[in-house]
Each structure stands twice: as structure tokens, then as C-alpha cells.
Amino acid sequence: MFSRAYRAAITVPPLIWVAAFLLVPYLLMFCYSFWSVSESGIIIHTWSLNNYHELLTKPVYWQTLLRSMWIAARVTFFSMLLGYPLAYFLSLHAGSRKDLYYQLVIIPLWVSYLVRAYAWKTILGTDGVMNTLLQYVHLTSHPLDFLLYSPFAVVLTLTHIYTPFTFLPIYASLEHIPRNLVEASHDLGATPQQTFWRVIFPLSIPGVLAGATFAFVLSLGDFLAPLLLGGPSGIMISNIVVSLFGAAYNWPLGAAISLCMLVLVLALIFFSERLEKKWSFS
Amino acid sequence: MSTSSSSSSIKTSRWLAFHALLVFAFLYLPIAILILYSFNGQGVGGFPPRNLTLSWYRILFSDAPIWDSVLNSLLVAAAAMLIALLFGIPAALAVDRANFPGKALFRRLVLLPLILPGIITGLSLLMLFRVAEVKLSLLTIILGHGTALISVATTKVFAGLQKLNRAQEEASLDLGATYWQTFWRITVPNLKLSIIGAALLIFTLSMDEIAVSFFLIGRDNTLPLEIWGRLRRGITPEINAISTIIFMFSLLTIVVWYRLRTRAEVTPEIGAELVETAGRS
Amino acid sequence: MATTTEAGFTDKSKPDSTSLLSIRSVAKHFGKNIVLRDISLEIAEGEFLTILGESGSGKTTLLRILAGFEQPTSGEVWMQGERLDTQPPYRRRVNTVFQHYALFPHMTVEQNVGYGLQVAKRPAEEIKSRVAEALAKVKMSTFAKSKPSKISGGQQQRIALARALVNRPRLLLLDEPLSALDANLRREMQVELKALQREVGITFIFVTHDQEEAMVMSDRIALLRSGELEQVASPREIYHRPATSYTAQFIGHTNLLYADVRQGTAMCDRLVWPTSLPDGSALFSLRPECIRLARIAPPAIGSANPLSNIRFRATLRDQAFHGATDLLHVESDGGLILTIRIASHDLPNSKAPLEFEFSAADAIPVRDSDNKNEERR
């Protein structure tokens, strides 16, 4: 029903923008990752695999990558642990208060990410709220110093930030389950537990996958929470990239790491999508 | 048997409610602390808070760099919103109703910044501006935010288009309206809510954005970058004060948005369809 | 292609007056899927033509081609000497009543009806009076300020009609406009719509899958089957002289008799009747109401009598009450199952065979639709 001119008018402008500001930059990142930088800080446009070789041979890079993935995995796990039962409670047990509770989950998303990370810093610090509180009630006499500048602080903060993000798709998938399926399951003699594991959970898997992908990918690429709360032991892969693009001034190596991250992330999204399709029946 | 199962389900329900309470406490604890300590005379941290005061707000109001950065952020957010809508709405229409080679790739590329860590979007654009010899400034941040947030506009408007009955547009053409007239008289009014929702969301996300801005910043700071700079220098409740004010503004935006929506008698879930679509991108 | 030539209806199916719309060899493919193949049809000024077909027959696609929402893959559409299919929908003097009405939810009834005039930039005064006139015509004046969501389905239907007619189109397309209404309202609207069409004198092309609706309303019916025209004729003609077995079955009930023709006599099991068809196998359609209970004892059972009144004996298998009529399923002595419609009537409740009869003239020779390819060769 749409004329050629109409279709051209809606297609060409976004196509040009996307090509210029998304496709070309990604391709540039790809190119950069094969270039190198001279002593005097000039980018040398000769093609080699040196950057990738360095990534594989220097343990600091892949160890940090592994640590980042481990942190991201923990964040994903804890977000799920908090987000799934919450979504389940809201969707199936909250009754008429559902909408109110839903808004309550959303509102923290409107507080700046940076500000929330900062708030955790004020809570966890040596002179922070937590330590002074513990001393005030005489639970400890010395401040606990593992609270801040540790992977613990990073995982805690990122879990705080990504729990609503995992909640949303899970809640949406639970809401899409027709309620008569639950009734049918009970009618056929299944207990609530059986109904959950055999009917509700399988049908919510697409939401779980979407939420998990979100939490994992976004926390994997985070560099602000580690800078703010991580300390030396909480450094993540993006922090290395940041320093390579900043003080260390090795853009090509930074680009190579970014590209590896990009590929990893795209692969994750791809597999999660595959699984989601397999588990969606509508 | 039925009584035992129903009593166990009540038990489950209680546990779930308790768990929900804990999660809400976890989600709101930092926000509560943040607001509380914006009134704390003794600085950030220290329990219990003492010497409650408004002096941090007073200091804040006479802090010129902060307000400059707020103005910058407002400018960036408004411009990014314009770009994102200007390209995001056609992008959604294109995905919905045009076929062209590379459509699948296009669709993925548009939505990618939604799920990618900001660092990748930021760095790739940094390289682009470096190669194109564009000086970093607020303009580069605007371009960065605009590009990243097209995904939000596209997602929201596309969700709106799915609900729009195409027969309405056909009816308009049938009644003699041109494509242009149909777009303004039928398509846009039907998408009004999606577009307003997208605009508000883009504006807020841009106001908060830091990962992309971090790499594209020139001489002028946006508010999150100004805060970031100060955090590195040592922290004062002034940051709590400005965060509290922004939080209140965000809350106001939400209330306005829900008012609009209730008046229109529709109940899409803000953010949810966004995250859903992102998950499926 | 199933033209009507062989059955000899061609001349009658062509409109007498000069045609308004001319569909010439239109075909539509969606990828490999052929939705319409080689449709040719002339539609006269002021005619009420129904395109009748099952879902998937291509009737909606044909309508959308006329409205301009689809481009034909090949073929042309002309309206009074002007090429229509190359024009965008908004340049065609063709308006549509959509299946679910497609009223604009953000506009009032009045704004909906005035939309076409407004985008055509007519003066405000004219818009006002024409909208009022159109609303009066469909008896909806009191609802002018309502939003479409606040009025009933039947009322929405009237508004959709007014919105289309107010533009004074040359041709009005109606895409199953009554399908969303309940049975009673539907029957009412059928009569009203037909009366309105006579009053305004605009050509209507009406798409439906409901054969009764088609019979009640149309001047002519174009029966579409799998993207091809099966038959185009007036309702009476299409009912009484179906060209193919598909037509005979789709429009009303029928009994299909597979017969052997030899020297002017058709034979099907033990039934024998005279025919003018050449020798060979042939298919006949015999409507259930054309078979009667025989009153007088026959001279000889199962033989063709000179008056072309064919009698046979059959056992009652099943009787269904339909109000004014009863539908009987009987098995003839030769094992043939036949459906018979008779005036509602209590039959002797016995297993004894009953006598039935029909006239040879009511056994209509039809082409076998399931065997099309064979016939084309």
C-alpha cells in the first residue's frame, strides 16, 4: 500500500545515519585493531595481528577478561535471585497492588546510574554509613575494610543496578502466560510446585534469557563502578580499555580488546536469541 | 489434600512477599541514604546523621560550574531527543513497512546500542571523530547520545505501530489524503503516546548518560561528567543535593507521563517493551 | 480459466450499458504464491456486484487492487477510459468501507465523515452541510459529536458508509462490511444497504464469503475460487443454472449426479433421464427442492417416462427439521445417497421405501470443477 517515494522517505535518512554513526565506527574499530602506534604516538596504518598476539600472550588481559566475566556472572546470578521471585510475586500474588509495586521497581531506574553507584560508595566506605552504623550499635569495633574497593562492592552495586533490568522481561513473560493454563494445571491435579516447574517456569524462560543477557552484557562492559568502588582487585576489562585510550595511549590495542568484547557480546546475544526462540511457543 | 496444598501456597505467598520486601529495601536503601545525607551537616557518611541542614543546597545554588553543566546537559538532552526522534521514527516505520536489502542488518544495528555496553558505542564514535578530525565538544556528545538513543525511539514507536491498525491509514488514503497528509493526520496522532513516551525516556536517559559522554567530552562538562569529576576529587553532600533535585524532577516526569497515559486509557508498560525488544534485538 | 462460454451465459453476464469499470486480465502474485490469475470483469454503472468466495479465494486482494492498496502483478484496471491501476489510492474516485470499519479513533464521528472533504480542502461551509447530509442519510445525525469507540458496531458501520459516500465516489468498495454484526442486525443492514445503493445510484462492489448475503443483495455475483472466476451471473441464474459443480455446491445445496450419457439418455445408477448432451460421461446438478414425493403410483419404477418425469424409490435415512422445510437424506434402490428438500411434513415412520420424482429439466449439466485440468486439454 505504500508508494515507492514514501518507502524511500522513511528508509533513506535513518539508513544514512546508521551507516555513518554505527556501521562506519564499528568498521573503524575493526581497522584500528590491526594497526599500531609508534613511540611518538602516531597511529601507523600497517596491518598486522600484533595486537591480538599481545592479548593472547599477556596474562593481564585475558585474566582481567575472565575476572570481568566472573563478576558479570555473579551479577547476573544475584539479579536473577532477586528479580525472578519478585516478578513472580508481582505477577501471580500481588493482586490489585500489582501496578503500584511495578512502578516501585521502575522508579530506581530514574535515578542516575552514577548517583546510585556513588550512594553505595557512601554506604560502604571506611567512614561510610554501614561501618559507622555497625560501630554505633557495637557490632564491630573496627571498620570493615572489605566492604569498599573490592569485587564485592562492584558485584553489589551492579546487582543493585541491573536487578530492575532483569525483572522487567521476566515480569513481561510471566504476564503473557494465560491464566487459564495455571488453572488447567491445577485442575489436572498438579500441586503449586509442580505447576510452577512444569508450566510457569518453562513459559517464562524467554524472559529469563532476555534479562540474563541484559545483566551479563551490561555489567561485563562496565567501567565506572569498578573505578569508583572496585579498587585494584576489582579492575575490569573495560578499565584496561579506558586506560589504553587515555594515559597509556595505545588505541589500536584498546580497539582490539573492544572488538573482542563486541564479538563476545554479539555471540552471547545470538545464542540467547536462539534459545529464546526455542522456548517461545506463541 | 486440598487444604494442605492451599496452606502451603499461603506460606509460599508469604515468603514471596517477604522476599519482595527485602528486594525493595535493597533497591531503595541507597536512594534513601542519598536523600537523607543531602541534609547532613557532618558530610557524607557517619551514623547517625546529625546537624540536619539545608546548607548543602545553599552551596549548590551558588555553585556556577554545576549549573553550567546542568544547562549543557539540558541542551544535549534536547538536541539528542530531536535527533533520536527525527531518525528513530522513520527507522521504526521502515522496519514496519519497507523492504530493502540489508534490512535485517539495519534493524540490528539500530537497536544494538540499547544492549551494548556504552563503552563500545562511545569508543567507536571517538575513533570516527578522530579520523574525521572533528573536535570533541558538546556537539560530539549530542551526536553520540542521538545515535545511541535512536534505538529507544525506534523501539517505542515500533511497538506503537504494532498496535496501529493499518486499515486506518488505508482508509485515509482511500478518502483522498496523500501519504504526507495521512502521516500527519492519522499515523502521528495514533503514535502520539509512543512518541511522547519515547521523548521523555530519551531525555531522561540522555540527562543521566555517562559511558558514551565519557569518551566524547570536550571542554564543557555535562552534569554526570561534572559529578564524576568531583567524585574523584573527594565527595561532599552537595552531590547528594543535586542528585536529590534531579530525582525529584524525574519523579515529576513519571507522574506527568502516567497522567497522560491514563487520560489516553491505554496501559503499555513503560520501559518493559523497551527491555523486551532489546532482549530480542 | 472458467469462463462461462460453454454453459452459454456469456452474453447475459456482460453488462448491457457501457461499463464503468473494466478489469482486464489482472493477476497478483505474492512471491511464489499466486493469489489471482487472469481475472477479467466488466462492471456497469450503477450495478451492485458481489464478489463471493471462500477465505483465501483472493476476493479481498482483488478489492485492494481496485482501491489501490495493492499493485496487480499483471493486467490493467480501467475506469471509463482512464487507467486506474497506476493511480495512487488517493487519486481514485473509489472509496472503501473497510471490514472492521477503520474509523479514526482520535476523531469524532463528524470529523471522520468530513475527513475526505477536509483533505480535499473543500470550503468549511460545504463540508458542514455535506457531512450533515451524509449523517442524515444513514440516520446518525445525533451522534455527530461522539467518538467512534462510544457507539455500537452497527452504528460504526453506518458511519463508515457515510464517510465513504460523502465523497461521491464513482465506485464504492465494501469489504465484508456486515461480517462483524450479529445475525438479525445483519439481515436488517442487508436490506438497508441495498435500498441505499438504489437511492444514491453509485456502483457497489461488495465482497463477502456469505452466499446468502450475496443472493439477497446483488445484481450480479462473481464467484471467485482459488484466484479464478468460476462464474459471473445474476443470483437467479447462478442458482438455477450453475456452470460448474463448485458453483452448484457453493451456492445452496445440491446433489451431484455422475452419469453416463448414451444416445440422448443419461444414466446414474438406476436413474435415467433424457439429455441433449453428447455421449460420454457427464455431471449433473439436481437441487434438493427439485425432488418431490411422488403422489400417484408409477407405471414402472426406475424407467424414464416420456414426460421427462423421473420416478425412483428410496429409503429414508435421516430427516432434519428446518422450519418451513425438511431436509431428507435418502438412499435410492441403486445405493445413491440424495438430499431432498420438501415442505415440512411428517413422513410415515416406517422403513418402507418411498416414491420420489423429479423433472429431467431440473438436472443441470455442470462442468466438473475438480477435474479442470482434464477439461482444458
Give an overview in words.
The complex is a heterotrimer of chains A (282), B (281) and C (377). Chain A has a single domain, classed as MetI-like (MetI-like fold, Orthogonal Bundle), CATH 1.10.3720.10. Helices cover 74% and strands 1% of the residues of chain A. Chain A has helices spanning 4-32, 50-57, 59-93, 98-106, 113-124, 129-136, 151-175, 179-187, 192-220, 224-230, 237-245, 251-279; strands at 36-37, 43-44. Chain B is mainly alpha-helical and 281 residues long. Chain B has one domain (64-280): Orthogonal Bundle (MetI-like fold). In chain B, helix 1 packs across helix 11 (237-263). The relative contact order of chain B is 0.14. With 377 residues, chain C is of the alpha+beta class. Chain C contains 10 helices and 20 strands. Chain C has helices spanning 10-13, 59-67, 109-119, 124-137, 153-165, 183-200, 211-217, 235-240, 245-250, 372-376, and strands at residues 19-30, 33-44, 48-53, 74-79, 82-83, 94-97, 171-175, 203-208, 220-225, 228-233, 255-262, 265-268, 271-274, 280-286, 292-293, 309-321, 325-332, 337-343, 354-359, 364-366. The longest helix of chain C is centred in the middle third of the chain and has 18 residues, at 183-200. Chain C is elongated.
